Amino acid sequence: MKRLMIYTAVILATLLGLQILWQFRLVVLLFALSLFTAATIRPFVNRLTATGLSRVGAQLLLYVVGIGALVLLFVLLSDNLFMELNILANRAVIEYESVYRTWQDGSAWQQTAASWLDSTIPFLHVEESDLGEMLPSVVLLTQNILTAAGGVLLLLALSVYWSADQYRFERLWLSLLPPRRRATARDSWRQIEYAVGSYMRSQGAQSILAALFLGAGAAIARLDFPLLLALAGSLLAFVPLFGGVLISTVALLLGSLQSVPLGIGAALYTFALFLVLEFVVEPRLWPKARGRRSFLLTILLVIPLLEAVGFWGLLIAPPLAAALEVILGQVYSWYVQKEGTAVQLNDLDDRFQTMLMKVNEADYEDLTPELKSLSKRLASLLATSRDLKVT
To answer: 388 lies in which domain range?
Structure first.
């Protein structure tokens, strides 16, 4: 009965914890992303602190340089980027109207597809008199952009705090554990941080390489949207498993607006580039990828996270899977070590009992004081080892 009550309490506590995490899922997401960001730039911070900078100063310098480079790049390319967006929007509307009118007078399946397009993409038929109805959508989009920008700033501020107070943070949560477990927990935590940081740095490097090669390839092929393709590739490089397929589809659509052969060629080039990044570049940037990858664990995490936090779930699932894989590996190693220790203790216990039987057969009083003390000491050590095994 007591064991049933304990199991019931554990299950209820777990369900309550999951409910609390669900209610505060955005806060948990922001917390996790800040830890991932701090782990990503940790090696660069350590190199700068070796030159005499403080940890906070080094991290702020990295953020200023990184964000400044992105802002400068956006300023230099914004005119061409908005021009491409304008051309893409005009061509998309023209192509849509052409296909829509053709399918309206086509076969039965084309007419069905035309009605589906009309109900799915109604904003392409908006008249000037209806532009006022789009104002709430524009306001909502602006609000979402400002919210995302504020979240990024808060994320960077939290990552500065975690990096500056790394050791104090470790001591705080390690103090909640029993003393004999703290060294193992600290090593596991640092292995998790190393795995997550390595993954994020690998994806960042792949994002930059994808943008460079996609932009250069699109410019050489005289694609009308090289910046858009490069931007989409740099963003989708962070999407696990399906990023290459998605950006290849984008390349196919963008190229097909000029000609179908160009679209097919752009899609094949993009897919080949992502295969090279996945199987050639990533194993060198992230050595863990040489072994088994946690694809199944990533998929199992993507589904609930995508439902809980939307697109951010795609980004947080792979580093979280890397962290969980480290935890599972540590638990398995501890289990194997525990079982091996149990076998050794059983063998030692059997030998000790055999020794006691031989001692009892002899005259105990005839034993030397050293053998008596050694026998008592061995019995005490075996008892202590059994207690540690139980706990």
So the answer is: 320-391
